[in-house]
Design brief:
- The chain contains six helices and seven strands.
- It is α/β, with parallel strands linked by helices.
- The mean pLDDT is about 95.
- The structure holds NADP nicotinamide-adenine-dinucleotide phosphate.
- The site of NADP nicotinamide-adenine-dinucleotide phosphate (NAP) has 26 residues, from helix 1.
């Protein structure tokens, strides 16, 4: 039987690395991207010869994403997972933050992931899945002011995906905005409530549970719908 293939964009460390590792463990063929050299990814590749490829791309570089598309143009992706994201100025508000930090988050967390989905979508056949890592903090309904600027970038991501979903119904893709919980990574920090092992296997299981169900859902790791 042909192995299923997943492309994880932004897999050098943290949740993206764990996603790549989990799909490898489950016997998938994994293509993982990094911006620079990642010794962790190279080591992982050594453990799964023939099942793992490492690509290089910065999602903020449109021509780089197009070049990645061209390199993969003969491939079929069962799952495209755009994980890349940044958090800056988490304690700040518009009056105190640097405009640059806010614009960087809007670009990396909202605009670039959806642009990557648009550029790469024809590698995903009908019935396949495009998932993007958002956050529980992207919910406008549940917002309480925490991580205000970051939350706004994830809400913008959710909105951009609404538009993307409306325009690509004919693709027949399962579209998932994934909220992984608050996880101990470089971004989540040491105070976060979950270990990577408590989040990522459930995220991967949730993606499998949504296979073949076209349309857009904003969901947590337990496959529960979140309020927009
Ligand atoms: N941790 C949490 O509690 C939590 C909760 C909700 C949502 N999330 C979301 O989950 C995702 C992963 O977070 P994390 O906690 O694993 O963060 P992390 O440890 O800081 O890792 C972020 C990853 O994104 C990559 N990345 C950043 N900017 C990129 C760009 N322009 N192009 C390509 N890759 C880029 C990083 O690559 P480099 O190594 O090259 O920087 C790294 O692999 C993010 O989207 C984040 O917003 C995290």
């Amino acid at each position: 039987m042909t192995k299923q293939t997943v492309l994880v964009v932004g897999a050098s460390r943290g949740l993206g690395f764990a996603l790549a590792e989990e799909w490898l463990r489950l016997g998938w063929h994994v293509i993982a991207t990094t911006r620079g050299r990642s010794d962790e990814l190279s080591e992982l590749a050594d453990g799964f010869p023939g099942s793992f490829e490492v690509e290089t791309v910065d999602i903020n570089d449109a021509s780089g994403v197009r070049a990645l598309h061209d390199r993969l143009k003969d491939r079929r992706l069962d799952v495209l997972f755009v994980n890349a994201g940044i958090a800056r100025a988490i304690e700040e508000s518009p009056a105190t933050a640097s405009e640059g930090d806010f614009l960087d988050m809007m670009l990396t967390n909202a605009f670039s992931p959806v642009r990557a989905a648009e550029i790469l979508r024809d590698l995903v056949p009908t019935g396949g899945t495009i998932a993007i890592m958002t956050s529980e903090l992207g919910s406008i309904t549940n917002a309480n002011g925490g991580w205000q600027l970051y939350s706004s970038s994830k809400a913008a991501l959710n909105m951009l995906m609404k538009g993307y979903a409306a325009k690509t119904v004919a693709d027949g893709h399962t579209l998932l905005l994934v909220a992984p919980g608050w996880v101990r990574t470089e971004m989540g920090g040491s105070e976060a409530t979950l270990s990577i092992e408590e989040s990522i296997p459930l995220v991967v299981e949730m993606i499998a549970d949504n296979k073949g169900k076209p349309g857009l859902r904003y969901v947590d790791r337990f496959n529960q719908e979140l309020p927009w």
